[in-house]
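Subgroup meeting minutes
Present: P.N., E.W., G.H.
Scribe: E.W.

1. P.N. recapped why we're keeping a running log of single-chain structure predictions: easier to compare across weeks, and new members can see raw inputs and outputs side by side.
2. G.H. added today's entry (612 aa).
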Amino acid sequence: MIERRDGHARMRALQVVVAVIFLVIAGRLAYLQLFDPRYDDLAKGNVLRHVVQYAPRGEVFDRNGEYLVQSRECYDLMVIYSELDRGGFDTAQLCGVAGITREKLERELASARMRPRAPRLVANFIPKEAKLRFDEFNLNGFYTVYRTVRQYPRKVGGNLLGYVGEVSPEMLRRYPSYRAGEYVGMSGVESAYEPVLRGRNGVKIQEIDTHGAIKGSYMEGRYDSVPEPGRSIVCTIDARLQLFAEELMRGKVGAVVAIEPSTGEILVMVSSPTYDPDELVGRERGNNYMEMLGNKRRPLFNRAVSSPYPPGSTFKLVQGLIGLQEGVLTPAQRYACHEGYQVGRLRLRCHRHASPVDLRGAVATSCNAYFCYVFRDILDNPRYGSVKTGFDHWKEYVESFGFGRRLGSDFLGEKNGYVPDRAFYDRVYRGSWNSLTVLSLSIGQGELGCTPLQMANLAAIVANRGYYYIPHIVKQIEGQDSIDRRFYEKHYTGVDSRHFEPIVEGMWRGVNTDGVGGTSRLAELKGYDVCGKTGTAQNPHGQDHSTFLSFAPKDNPRIAISVYVENGGSGASTALPIASLIEEYYLTDTIRRPWLLDMVKNKQIYYPAYAK
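Output recorded in log:
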């Protein structure tokens, strides 16, 4: 009896175990069939094809409504390896239409074979005509996807507008909303306003049979989504003026920035050498991009917002304004210049001109000695008790003009420039320095570094008599009543507006008055009261750099401009003629001095730093 009971017990235990195992398996099967979406997705993947509907990027116009950037129709050629004809196809014919080599086709097919049911990009930027020819082949496994590609009707503003490139693996990790195969702005306006220009992609879900043939839309298109095109942008740029400025800078290295003082809108932004944006579009983009990267003159580098150049004598305007505000200078104050400024063995040279001169005359003639006196009086001001404290106050004034920091423009590549602080000199001179030690700052040399954008902003500040609007590149965005509010706010310097008049008068005399030895006489435009200031920045790598800043007219100014030409020599010889021609073209809608235009276009500059 005991053995029989034990046998029954073991049998029941075994039945329980079997029942439990059965329930677990049944539960798992029920979960997989009813709740786990993975297998449902796998099943649908065999009969459904998700085709991305790429949204066209928003177009970009200049301030006058001319197209700067457009989107034109093109196609991506895709392949699904599992759906290819086993009998093969005419590879030469396909390569000819797609514009790719046989090697590339074989490489893409080998990659597609690793995931035979997943779509794989074979060729992109196929024009509409090639797509129509491809449709005639009716090749199983291949299909095309509509998209757009950028084109640049005016072929201007390479660094300004930027270019569009395929999203990188790093960007995919950083931005989960992006997808492989998408194209995004990589620089310039395309990058700065990517969220506006990008739009939103849609999707079309197709049902396919076991042979890969399309049966129709899944659920009658219930789950399809329509792409939302990107919004268009109106730039502040004047396309015609931009093209003219780029022509003047051809063969030269440097930058041009022109601003409308009353709004802060950027009229021109040229970085030279530049590039044709169309060269970075389409199938040859990779080769062209690598070639530009290897170019020693760096056409992809935007000097207008990123190069910290020494401002040279244009910076004397800031010294004069600080001196007036600090009360260590009056407009009538005269200083003698004996072709330079000398204390002991230290001598800072100057060119020959009338002496002594007052502030207006010093600005007009660009007297080095005058601003050495002014700078030392600012730093040695007795009320501060020490040169270092005086230097701290000088630095605060300089930064109020927008130097040594980003201005906050809507251009992503904007750099700070550089204004040294007392800690820098304490470190270099072990705490022992004075106003003579840093005297080169008085004429915009030494450690100062200013971007052409900051220098153009200085011209706008003087034109406005003490304030500026943050320079910006976009005027209007489709669907928005206004741009960012920060671009409508006035930013004041630390100098009262009343102190700007003698500086403006000196700039006007330097251009428009005979007999004073003005350095900017070539910039005169009869009837337009041009104000200007030349600058020559010392350069250890060849000829001096040439720079010029200007605005016009003197009252109610319409344009403020800065031109910087590396190795261009004196400010009056290269930068001034370029700025003056741009002002003439903008203000008069024509060029009245063809001889000056020829001189600028034919000027040859040797660049030893880029020739090595």
